[in-house]
Design goal:
about 270 residues, alpha/beta, six-stranded mixed beta sheet, about 25% strand, globular, ATP hydrolysis activity
């Protein structure tokens, strides 16, 4: 019987490019209302995995199911009703306003027999409200700060009204304050019942904001589970070839990774 549980189920997933496998035998289940953070060194397959989940990169084998439906058995429009991706460096049309950008999120819901509707307008309004960008609606996207722009891009993704949201390094190039704003918003999105999978380079931030940590190396899942059960000195060494101390955050016990300096003259052991 097909599993129709809300959320994301990935089974035996392999993906890559001709002659170069990148993602190998990935198994992942993320229930509705939870956040999974994918971490690992550069080139380990994180972004390829996310693109495969988003139906932008066809897998060599395996399945990606959302509420029981294999997204690769759906047409592109129906798949866009199930999963939305915010890439690492999104591009917008020149001089687009925030409201115009967020409306793009409703594109998969348009068609010859279905034009702009009250439902679309409501989805845009809710996305602007949820991301705190309603007052920016008439502003040009390219005139906003980096943190404001990222919240506007998130609003566009939320307006797509998909049960699964994929975010590729949503806090890259943001300062600490704006990164906290974005990651707090990610938690709010999950609290509203959506499934969120995000790629994160900051292991401490991933451990603080995710329900499940997925650690990848060489295209495989090296470790997976609750952050406080998964993050330790051994994992950090295996992933990044650095020694570290793992502390417990005073507020909630979330693991805090403190890398140790390399000895003078020591060279990293990574390829």
């Amino acid at each position: 019987m097909t599993d129709t549980t809300p959320g994301l189920q990935v089974r035996a997933l392999h993906a890559g490019y001709p002659g170069r496998p990148v993602v190998r035998d990935v198994e992942l289940t993320v229930p509705a209302g939870q956040v999974a953070a994918v971490v690992g060194p550069n080139g380990c397959g994180k972004s390829t995995l996310l693109r495969t989940l988003a139906r932008l990169h066809r897998p060599a084998s395996g399945t990606v199911r959302i509420a029981g439906d294999d997204i690769w058995e759906l047409n592109r429009r129906r798949a866009a009703h199930r999963v939305a991706l915010l890439p690492q460096s999104p591009r917008a049309p020149e001089a687009v306003t925030v409201a115009g950008l967020v409306r793009y999120g409703r594109h998969p819901h348009q068609g010859l027999l279905r034009q702009w509707s009250r439902q679309d307008e409501e989805a845009v309004r809710e996305a602007l409200e949820a991301t705190g960008t309603r007052e920016l609606a008439a502003e040009r996207l390219d005139e906003l700060s980096g943190g404001q722009r990222q919240r506007c891009w998130l609003a566009m993704v939320l307006a797509q009204s998909t049960p699964v949201v994929l975010l590729d390094e949503p806090t890259s190039a943001l300062d600490v304050g704006h990164a906290v704003d974005v990651l707090s918003l990610v938690r709010q999105v999950a609290a509203g019942g959506r499934t969120v999978v995000m790629v994160q380079h900051d292991l401490t931030a991933a451990a603080r904001y995710a329900d499940t940590l997925v650690a990848m190396k060489d295209g495989r899942v090296l470790a997976q589970g609750r952050p406080r059960d998964t993050v330790d000195e051994t994992l950090v060494k295996e992933l990044y070839d650095v020694e570290s101390d793992i502390l417990a955050a005073p507020a909630d016990g979330a693991p805090v990774v403190v890398p140790r300096p390399r000895a003078a003259g020591a060279a990293p052991g990574r390829d």
